[in-house]
Queue: 4 jobs
Job 1
Amino acid sequence: MTRLVLSVLLRLAKAVGVVLAIVLLNFVLIRLAPGDPASVMAGQAGAADEQFMAQLRAQFGLDKPLPAQAWSYVSGVLQGDLGFSYRQGMPVSELILDRLPATLLLTGTAFAIALIGGVLMGMVAGLNAGRALDFIVSVVSLLFYATPLFWVGLMSILLFSVYLDWLPAFGMTQVGARFTGWEYVVDVARHLVLPATTLGLFYMAVYARMTRASILEVRDMDYVRTARAMGLPRRRMVRSHILRNALLPIITLAGIQAGQLVGGAILTETVFGWPGIGRLAFDALLQRDYQVLLGVFFVTSIMVVVFNMITDLLYRLVDPRIGAAA
Amino acid sequence: MNPTLRRLSRDPKALIGFTILLVATLSAIFAPMLFPRDPWAMATRPFLPPFEDPEFWLGTDMLGRDIFAGLAYRARMSLIVGLASTVAAVVIGIVIGALAGYFGGWIDDVLMRVTEFFQTIPTFVFALLMVAILSPSMLSIIIAICIVSWPPVARLVRSEVASLRNRDFVRAATVLGESHGRIIVAQILPNTLSPVIAMASLMVASAILTEAAISFLGLGDPNRMSWGYMIGASRTVIRQAWWMSFFPGLVILLVVLALNLLGEALNDAFNPRLARRGRR
C-alpha cells in the first residue's frame, strides 16, 4: 500500500513539474510575440496610447529584470490569474471557466464514442484478422484517419442538417427556445450528436488500430495457446483470455490520445458554433488576443495532465502488477 | 532488385499511394502549364456549379476563380509544408534520439523528459499558438508543425539506438578506437533508418492535415493559399455552394490516404515477418 501511495506521489510531483514547465513556456511565448509584451497583452484593442502602455508595463513588472518577470508571471498563473483580455473586458480565467463545461461535455462525449466504437471495430478486425471483415474495418478506419476533421464536420452539416434536416447544425441549444428540465437535455443532446461524432471519428480510427494490434499480439501468447489446447470454448477464451489482456494497454494509450481531443475541439467547435473554449480560442485567434490564447493553451494542457493521471491511476487499479513493479 | 523494393512494388497499397502522390506532385509542379491563367484572378462568373461548363469542370468560387486550377496551384503549399516540416522534425528527432539512446544516463533522462513534455502538451493548440505569435507565414507554419511532430521520432530512434548500442559490431568499432560521432553516424544510424522512413511517410500525412486545419482557421500564409484555406474561405457559403469546400477536402483526403497507405506498405516491406503475422 505504501508503494502505491509513493508511486502516486511520484506521479503527482511529475505532473506539477509539467505544469510549471508549461507556465514557463507560456512566458517564453509572450516574449516571442512581435513587439513589446505590453502591446501583446493589450492586444490591438486601440491600446496604443503611451500612458496606458506604461501603466501596463509597471503593472506586469515589465520594467524589472527578466527572472523577476518570470517569477511574477509564474506565481500569478499558479494563483489562477491568467491575465486580462482587453478585447473582451474580462479576466481570461473567467472567460475560460464560463466556456469550460460545454467543452468538457463535447470532448467527453466524443471520447466515449471514439473509445466504444474504436474498441469494437478493433475487436472485430483483430479477431477476424486476414478475413474480409478485417479488411472492411481497416479501410473504414483508414478513411476516418485520413479525413480532415473540419471537412467531416462541414459535410455532415450538409448531409444531416441541410439536405436531410434531421439534426441541428449550429450552437448548443435552439435559438429563442427556453426549454427546461428534460426538454433542455434532449435539445442539448440533439445539438451534441454531430459535433461529438465528428470529433470522435478520428480517434475512433486510432483506437481501432491500437485494439487490433493489441489483440494480434495477445492471441499468439502461450497462455492463449494453452487455453485453446485445453479445448476452452472460443467465446470464453476470447472474453477472459484475449480481451482482458489486450484491452489493458488501450487504457494508457487512450489516456495519452484523449488529451489531444481538446485540440480537435477547436476545429469542431468552430465548425458547429459550439460555445466552448475551442470557439473562444478561434475568436481569440482572429483578434490576435494572445492572453486568451495562452490561457486556453494553459487550461487545455492542465486537462491533458489531469487526464493522463486519471488513466494512469485507473491502470494501476486494473492491473495490480504495475503497482507491485513500481 | 533490392528485396525491400521488390516487396514494395508488389504491394497494392504502395502502388495506390504512390500513384496518387505522383499525380498530386506533378499537378503541383506543372500547374502553370496546365492552367496558364492567374489562379488569383477572376476567370468567369462566381458561384458557377461544377460539371456545367467544361472549361471550369469543378466550378468557381465566390470570386469566380477556377476551383480546378486552384486545387493544382495550392497543392504546392500543402505538399511543401508537409515535406519541409517532416524533414526538419525527422532531423531533430534523430539527433535527440541518437544522443539519448547512445549516451544513456543523465543525458537520456533530460532529453526524454523534454520529449515527454512535448508529447504531453496538446499539440494542435500549441501549433496554433506558435503560428499566431510568430505571425502567419509558410515558415512559421513549418516551424510550428515541426516542433509538435519530432517527439515520436526521437523516441523511436532512441529505442533503436539503445538496442543497437551493445551489439558486437558497435563494440568492435569502439575497440578500434572510432569516435562516438563516427560510430553513431556510420555504424548505428544506418540500421535505424527503415522504421524512421516508414514513420516519416505518416508524419507528412499528419503535417498536411495540420496545415489544412491551421489554414482553415484563417491562420494560413496570406500570400500562398492552400487547400485548407479554400475550405475555410468558402465555409460561410456552404449552404449555397457545397462544391467550394467539397473538392479541396476530397483532395486532402486522397493525399493523406495515399501517404498513409505508403507508410503502411513501407512498414510491411521493412518487417516482412510481422506483416505476414498480421495478415494470417
Job 2
Amino acid sequence: MNAFRIVPAGDSALIVEFEERIDPDVNAKAIACAEAIQAAHLAGVRDVVPTYRSVAVYFDPLRTDGDALSACLEREAGQSMPTAAAARAPVRIPVCYGGELGPDLTGVASFARMPEADVVRIHTSGTYRVFMLGFVPGFAYLGIVDQRIAMPRHASPRVRVPIGSVGIAGVQTGVYPAETPGGWQLIGRTPVKPFDTAREDPCLMKAGDAVQFYSIERGEFDQWM
Amino acid sequence: MLVIRPGMLTTVQDAGRWGFQSSGVPVAGPMDPVSHRLANALVGNSRDAALLEITLLGPDLEFHDERLVAVTGAEFDLALDGHPVPSYAPFTVAAGSRLRFGARRIGARAYLAVSGGINVPPTLGSRSTHLVSAMGGVDGRALIAGDRLPLGHPKRVQGTALAPQAAIVALSDRRATIRVLPGPQVEYFAQRALDVLQSGPYVIARNSDRMGFRLEGPRLTHARGADIISDATPLGVLQVPASGQPILLMADRQTTGGYPKIATVIAADMTSAGQLGPGDAITFQVCTPHDALTALIAQERALMAVEERRS
C-alpha cells in the first residue's frame, strides 16, 4: 500500500501527494499513479499532471462529483505500482560542450576545481531521470546530477537563453526547449529540439524516462543544425 | 476578417489547450470564461469556438462577408460603419462593414465572436494563443494591423431581433470580491494567514498579465519557508513567494511552480477576476465547497438558457 493523501486545490482539481521528498522511487509512484488515472478514463477529467511527488487531476465539477472522483483516485493511488524501469530505451542527447555554446562550462569547472573535460566526462557518464515537465513546453527536470558538478544557478538569470542550451542548477540538469529567460549554468548546447509541435510526438522526453548526454564536436553540431 | 487597428492586446482564444500540461504545455484560453462562452452562444457557435479576447483598448475590424457578430465582457462604445451597436446582443455585419471599438465603460476584457468562429489552424488541438510559448492563434502572438483571420463556416449569418442579453455575472468595476477555497498548501502558512488574506484589499500590480496578477496587500507569513518541491499550478491558485505578496495565476500560467499555494479561486469567480486589470482591487473571501458548486451551477443554467435559445 502506498503512502499518500488527496488534497483539493479549489473546486476543479485534486492533488494526490506522495512522500514529500525528491526521490526516484517516490517519483515513480506518482508517474505510475498518473498513468493509472489516465488509463481509467474517468468521466469529467480534463488533464492529469504528474510532478516530482504528486499528481494533479483537473476535472469539470459539473460533470463529476469531487468526492466520488476522490474515492476513485484513492483506489488508483493505493494500487498503482511503478512499472519495471527501462521500459523505454534511454533518450540519448548529443551535446556540444563549452565554448560559445556552453559559456558557463569554465565557471562550473572552477566551481568543481577540475578541468572542463572532467566536468563533461561526469555530466555524460550519468543516467538521468525525467522527474517532471514544466516551466515551458517540453522542459524536462532531470536529476540527479553528481554532487561534484552541482553548481547552483546564477544569482540573476540571463534575459535570453538560446534554444537547446544544456544547463545545471544544483543537482538538476535540463535542456531549454525555447528561447526564454533562465538562470541555469549553461555548459553546452544540443542541436536536437526537445519540443516541436511539427513532430507527431512533440515532446522528446516524458516523465519517468531515462536520459543520457553524449559529447559531440562543433563540426558535428553545425551539421545537425 | 481584417485587422485595421489591433487594440492593446487582442488574441485568438478558444476554450484552452487542455490535455498537454504533463508535457509542460500551458492551457491558455479566455481570462473570463463566462463572457467567452456567452459571446459564442449569441452567434450560434459551439461553446469552445475561437474568438477574439480584447484587452483595455479595442481594435478596428473589417468584415469580408455577411456574418453575425456579438461582443460580451467589458463594455465599449461600439460603432458599425459609424452607427452605434449594442454589446451583449448579436448584430449582422455585411461584406465591407467596419466595426470600431471606442471608449471602454466598464470591465477589462471584451470577447468578440463571429459566426463560424475564427478558423486559424489548431496547435495541439487548440487555437488559443499562448504568448510566452508563441503557440496558437496567429503565429502565437497578439494581433497586429494587417492580419487577416480565416473564419469557419457559420450555422447562421442573420440575426433575429434580440434584446441585449443581461450579463451572466455583473461586471467587475475596478474591484471585486473573489471567493476562494483554502489549499492546496495552506499548512505552509502561519495560522492566521487566511484571516490576513481576507483582510485585503489586494491591488493588482502593473507587471501583471495573462500569466498572473501580482498582488500588493497585507503580507502573508510562511510557516515552513517559501519553497516547496515544485508541483502543478491550477488556474486561480494564489501562490506566495518569499515576499509574502501573493500572485493569482491566470489563463497563461506555467504548468508547475515552486511556491506554496495558500488558496484557490473558485471556478465561478474566475469570470470576475478576468474583468480586472492593473490598479484594480480584489477582496478575497473564503467560502465552502457547497457555495462554489452552487455558484457554478447557477452560471451554467444561465449560459445553457442562452445556448438553447440560440440553437
Job 3
Amino acid sequence: MVTKVRTIYKAETAVVCKRPLFMGKVTAGFPSPADDYVEGSIDLNALLIKHPAATFFVRVTGDSMIGAGILPDDILVVDRSLEPADRKVIIAVVNGDLTVKRFRRRGDRVFLEAENDAYAPMEMKAGINFQVWGVVTSVVHLM
Amino acid sequence: MSRFALVDCNNFYVSCERMFNPSLEGRPVVVLSNNDGCAVARSNEAKALGIGMGAPVFTLAETLRRHNVACFSSNYALYGDMSRRVILTLGELVPDLEVYSIDESFLDLSSFREKDVPGLCGTIVTTVKRNTGIPVSVGVGPTKTLSKVAAGMAKKHPCLGGVCDVTDERWRERALAATPVGKVWGVGRRFEKFLKMRGIDTALDLARADRVMVKKRMGINGTRLLDELSGISCYPLETNPPAQKGVGVSRTFAAGIDDRRALCEALSTYAERAAEKLRTEELRAGLMEVSAMSNRFQRDTFYYNTAVVRFPAPTSDASEMIKGALSAFDGIYRENVPFKKLGIHLRELSPESEQQLLLFDAVDRDRSASLMKALDAVNTAMGKRTLGYASSGLSEPKAWRTRFNHKSPSYTTCWDDILRVF
C-alpha cells in the first residue's frame, strides 16, 4: 500500500491571539476590582465614530467657526444619523452650497449662526433651499 | 408564506455624486463608463432629455452642451463605499439580506408580522436616505421575482412614497399588467423577442402563458419563472454568495491601439493586476484566457480572438502570469488592427492552501511566494505600482491608460479628497 501525498495544507498563522500582559497581583482576600477592566488597545474610531454607515469626514475652509474651536483645514466628523437639535454644529445645504454653522431654532424660525463676529446670523426663510446634511460630532485638528 | 423585499437604489451613481455636490439637485446628470465612452447612469432629468442607457457619448455631445448636463466619469471607489454604507444600514434593520449588485439587495421578510411590513419598509426608505443620502425604492412580494416587479413600480410612481407591496393579488395583477415582459427578472433579450412574437407583452401575459410552451423554450428556468410570477417562491435568499469562479481584468481603450509594444505593456499590467487580485483572495489559477477585440462599431473590420494558456501548476506568480499572457497574445495579435479592448480572465481557481506539488517544477515555489509577498508588502505600504515589472512599461502617461476626465474626488476613501465646507 502506497500512501500518496495529494494535498499539502499551509499552517494557519494569520490569527494572532493577544493576551493582556499586565494583570492584577494574586492576593489573598478580595480580588482586585481592576481585573474586571482588562483592556485591549484604545481605538480612536470607537471614540469618534458611533454610526459607521452614516459617518463622513469633511474638511473646513475659512474662519467662520473659529469661536467653536473649528479652524481652517480642520477635519470634522459628521454623523448623518443624528437629529439636529438647537445649538448643535451642523453641516447644512443652503441653496446648493455646503456650510458648517451652529443650528439655532427659535420657535418656528431657523437660524444658522457663525462663531465669528465678522459673519451675521442667517435666517432660513421660505425661498431659501435649506437642508441639514449632518450633525458635527467632533473636530480633528492636526498640529 | 415567504415574503421578500428588493431594495433598489434610485439612479445610484448619480445619487452618490449628488450627495457630495448638492448643487446637482434638479439638474440633469449623467455618469459615464470607463473611458468616458457611454452613459451608464442618468438622473431622471437626463432620462427626460432622451439620453438612453449605454448611449455613446459622441452621439450625445449636442444634448449635453445644450442642456448643461453635468457629466462625471465613473468613480468606483466612491460608489463602492456608498454601497457598503447602504448595506450596513439595511443590515441593522433586517437580519437576512442578499447583496445582489452594487445597488440592489434582497431582504427576507418572512420573520416579520404582516402588519409590521409597511412600517419597516418606510423605515428602510427614510433611514437609508438619512444615513447615506441615497434614495431607494422598496418592492415587496411573496417571491424574489415579484419583489423586483414591485420595486420597479415603486420607482416609476413617486406617489407610492418609494414602497410598493404586491402581496395582495389585486395589486399584483395591476403591477404585472404595467410591467413590460422584457423588464421581468430572468427574461433575456432573445426570450423577450420570442414572447413578443407570440403576443406576450406584459408580465401578466407571461404569468398566464402556456406552461408547456415556456418550458419547451426555456426549460426548467422557464417554469420556475412562471411559478415565481404566480407567487410560488423558487429562489431563496443566497446569503452566502458562491465562491468566485474567475478573476478578470479588462479595459477598453479611448482610441484604437495597433502598436504592439503598447499593447504588450497594457496586457502585462493586467496580468500583474490579476495576479495581485488572486493573491489578496489567497487563490491560484490553473488557466488563463486572453482576449483581444477591435472596435465593434466598425463591423466590416471587426476582429475578436481569444487564446488560453494552461499553467503547469496553479499559480499566482506575477512573472508567470505575464509570460503566459504575452505568449498567448502572440497568437492572436494582428498587425494593423486597432485594438479597442484587451482582457485577461483567470479560471480554475483553487485556494493557496491546496497547492499540489509538481515533481519537475520549473518554478521555485518558495522563492516565488516570498518574492510576491515582498512585492505586495511594498505596494501596500508605499502605494500602488511602487514596484512593478518592466514589461508593463515605466513611463507615464500611457496611451492605453483608462481615461477619467471628469471623475469626482474620492470623497469617502481618500483624506486629500474629502468634502470641503465653508
Job 4
Amino acid sequence: MTAVSTPGGMQPVPEDQLHVRAQIGEEILRVDGLTKHFPLRGGVFNRQYGAVRAVDGVSLTINAGETVSLVGESGCGKSTTGRCIVRLLDPTAGHVYFKGHDLAQMSHRQMRQMRREIQIVFQDPYASLNPRINVNEIIAEPMRIYGRYKDGGKERVKELMRIVGLNPEHGNRFPHEFSGGQRQRIGIARALALNPQLLILDEPVSALDVSIQAQVINLLEDLQNEFGLAYLFIAHDLSVVRHLSDRVAVMYLGHVVEFGTKHEIFENPTHPYTQALLSAVPLTDPRMRGKRERIVLEGDVPSPSNPPSGCRFRTRCWKAEDICATEVPELIDRFGHGHPSACHFAEPKAVIRG
Amino acid sequence: MGAEPQFVDAPTGVADAEPLLSIRDLVTEFKTPDGIVHAVDGVSYEVFPGETLGVVGESGSGKSVTVMSVLRLIPQPPGRIANGQILLDGTDLLQLSDADMRKVRGKDVAMIFQDPMTSLNPVLSVGDQLAEAILVHNDIGEDAARKRVVELLELVGVPNADQRFDQYPHEYSGGMRQRAMIAMAMANQPKILIADEPTTALDVTIQAQVLEVLQRAKQETNAGVILITHDLGVIAEMADRVVVMYGGRVVETGTVDEIFHSPKHPYTLGLLSSLPRPDVDMERLVPIPGQPPSLINLPSGCSFHPRCHLGEGRQTCRTEIPPLFELGPMRASACHFHEEMEDEIHRVESTTGTAIEGDEA
Amino acid sequence: MSEPSQPDERPKAQDVPVRTGLGGADIVTDDAGLHRADDSGEAPEYHDGTQIVARSQWQLFRRRFFRHKLAMGSMLFLLIITLAAFNAERVAPYGFNEIDVVMRSTPPTFEGWHLFGTDQLGRDYFSRVIYGTRVSLQVAVVVAIISTLIGTTLGAVAGYYRGWVDAILMRFADLIIIVPLLAVLLIFAAFFGQGQPMRIGVIIALLSWPSLARIVRGVFLSLREKEYVQAARAAGAGDLRIMFRHMLPNTMGPILVNMTLVLAAAILLEATLAFLGLGVNPPTPALGLLINAGRSSMLTSWWLIIMPGLTIVAIALAINFVGDGLRDALDPTQQEK
C-alpha cells in the first residue's frame, strides 16, 4: 500500500499498526470532500445527460469510541455517504482516510483487507439476512471469509450471540423464525464478528417498534462502552440521534450544512435548516403544545439532479438574500460560537423547546 | 408561523356529549394456516364530535384492523368480524347492507391512508379523483364539483390549486399527495375522519405541514378524528384523548395529558420510557423486554404479563384477563395493579434520568 | 434502582413458572429489563404465548407443497411411471419385441394383459409403452440437467457482472431463441445420425437453455441489490462466494420450476423427433416412434396411436402440475408467519 499523506490529517499509520485498536479519542476516520454522482442516462444511445448529485463534497471526522451522526431527510445523501465509506459504492471524488490510508483510492483487493475494520449494519432487518442460511452461518461468514473460523470460530459465534442478547442455542434457526428486533441483533453480531473498529449504522432502528428500538439502542450503547467502537450513525429520527450521538452532522441535498457536538446542534443550532428540522420534531410532551415557535418550511426538497445554485437550502429559506444564490456558503465557524455552519447568515437560536 | 393554540384537555363538553362513533366489544379475526389470528379482541372505544382521538400501539396491536373493521374493509375471507357493534349516530354499521355501507364510506366516515401514492390512481388526474369523490355522494354538476375541489385544494395548502387540478399523482410530491388525500377525505363533510399513520411515510418537516393541515381539516368539518400512529410525538402534538392498544386489546384510555404524565398501565409507561426525547438528554432508555405477543397464541391472563415488571411473578396477572378498570370519566386501565403505577413510574424515572410525571405546566 | 414495594401475594422465586420459547429467550441485559431463562419447563396452566414452532425452510416448503393436491397426485403418478419404466424388465408383462401370435391387432383387453392392445405382429403395446417411456425419460432428464447447468451458469454470470458480459451473453441467448429449434434438430439429426438418447438429449439441451438463462439473469439482477448481498460484500466476500452462497440458493425456486417445464417440453420434442423418424433408433421403442409406427394402421387400430399419445400427454401434464406446485410452494410471498 502506498502511503498517502493526508492534508490536515494524521500521517498514515504503519501497516502493522493498522489493525491495532486506536486509543479512545484518536481520529480514525477522516472523510474529505466525498462526492458521489449517479449518472442519468437515456435516449437511443444511452448517453449521459445529467447526474444525481447525491453526495457533493462531504467532509467529517470520527474518533475512536465516539458516535458521529449523519442526519437529514430522505434524499439528502446520508445513506450514500455511508455506503461510499465502506466502498459498497465507489465515490466519484474525494478521500476516505482510515487511520491515514485512503480507502477511496484502494483497489478492491486492498479494500478487502480493510473491510474487517469497518463494518456496516443495515436498516431493514428482514432484507439484510439471507433467508436460506441459518444464524450460526450468517454470523460465522465474515470469519470464514478471512480464514479465521477454524480457530475457535464456533465458540466465537456463540459468544457473539450472547453479547448481542440472543440465546446461542438458537443458532441453527433461520432468520424468518426471529422477530424484527432479534434479526437486527443478528445483523449486529455479524458486524462485530471480525472485531471492527468502526461501525456504519445505517438507520439500524428505524424499522423497529418503539419498545424494541429501545432494546437495540441500549445494546449499541453497551457495545460501544465495552469494545470502544466508533459509530457513524445514519438516521432521520432526531430523538434517537440526540440520545446516541457525541457529534452530529446535518445534511441537506448532498451537503453537510452544520457539524457540531450534540449539545451545540440541539441547543444552539445556527443553520436555518437545522433550526427548521428541530422545530418540526414533535415533542412527546403534550404540555409543550403550542408553546414553541414552529418554523414551517415552504415547499419540498429540490431534485438532487438539478440543485439550486449557491446555497442549496435557499429555495426554502426565510433568510435567503441575493448572495445565497451566487455564493456557496462554506462550512466554517463564522463568528466563533464553536462549530461550523454553512450559512451566510448563521446565527444561534434555541428552537427545540421554543 | 406559529401553531394555533390548542386544547390540552379534552374539548369542553366532551364528557357529557353523545359519542359520534361508538365501537363496542369488537372482535375481528383472520384465519391462517397456523391458526386463527385474533387481531382485535373485544375492543371498545368512543369518538366525540370535534375531538382528536389518538390510537397508539405497536405493529400487531390491532389499531389499524379496528378502524378497517369500522369501514368494513376487512378482506373476507380470511378476515371475519366475529362480534361487536359499531354505532355511528346510533346506527350499527355492521348491520348495514353492502349498498348502504358504500354510502357511509367516503361520506360519513372518510379515511386518510399512510401511503398516498398507492391510494391515488396513477392514471387519473388528482382533481378528477377528488371531483369523483364528491360526485358519488352529491347530486351536483361537474363544474360545481370542480369549483369545490379547487376550494378544498386551496384549503389544504396546495399552491396554484386551479392548475394543480389537472396534474397527475406522480407530479405531486409526497407531502402534496397527502394534502390532496386530506382534501378528498374532507370533501363530503364527514362526521368521522380516520387517519391511519398519515405522516409515517413523510419527512419531519413535511410531517409538520401535513399535521397542521389535518388540524385545519378537523376544525373545518368539526369531525371526530381518529388518529392512528405508532409515533408518540405525533400523538402528543395532536390528540385530545388517547387509546393505547396492545395485543388486540385496549389497555389504557385517558386524556393526552394523563397518558403522557401519569400512565396507569405498565405498557404505556414502557412506551414512554423506551422513547428517546429530542428536547432532553436521557441517561438510559428503559425498553420493554421480550418480544410482542403472538396473536395466534396470546399469553394467558393479561397479555402483557410476560414483559411486565409490575406483574412479574404474580399469579393474578398470568391467569386473569384484566377488565378495563374505570378510573374516572373517560379514564381506564386494564391493569390489575394500576394502583401501584406511581412507584413504577418513580422506578423508571430513576433510570432514565428524566421526569415523566413532571410539574404541572 | 428502587424496587416497588411488593405485596404479599407475589409468589417466591421458585414458584414462578418457567417461561419457554423464543420470545422469552431474548435476554435483555438491561438495568430495568428482566432476565428470562429459556429452560423448557413442564407445561403450566398458563403461558406467555411466545412459543414459536420452529420450522425450517424445508419444512415450510414441504408443508405448502403437500397441501397442493394436484401436484402431489402428479408427483405420485410420475414416481410410479418412472419406477415402472426403469424396471421395465420386471414390470412389463412382455418384452418389447416379444410376439403373441395368437392375439394380433387386438384392441385393449384384459385377456393376456394386453392393456394397451397389440399391433399387427402381436407385440404388446403396454409393454412397448413402458419401455418407450424409459427412453423418453432418459432423453428428458439429460436435457433438463444440461440445459439447466448452461442456463444457470450463463444467466448468473450475465446478471452478476452486468455490462458488456451481460450484453454479449444475452444477445447470444436471443440468437438461440430465434433459431427454429425443429429445423436445427432435423439438420443435426441428418448430419450426426440418429440413435442414442444421449446424443438427441444433448442437442435439444444446447438449444433450450436461453429461457432459463434469462430468468436466472433477472433474479440475479434483483438479488444483487438485496441488502444481504450488500452485507456479504461489506464483510469482504468475493464474487464466487456471493454468487454461490448468497444468490444461487435464492434462485433455486425459479430454476426448479423452469426445470420441470424443460422436462415436459423435452419429452414432447423427443416425441416429435421420433415421430418424424429422427429420434432414437428402432427397435428401441421411444414413445414418438410408437406413434409413428401406429400411423399406418391408424384407421383400423386406433389404440396404437391413442395409447402412447395419451401416455405422453399424461406425463407432460403431470410434470407441469408438479412445476405449478413447486412454484407455489417456493414463492416467498406466501411465506407464513
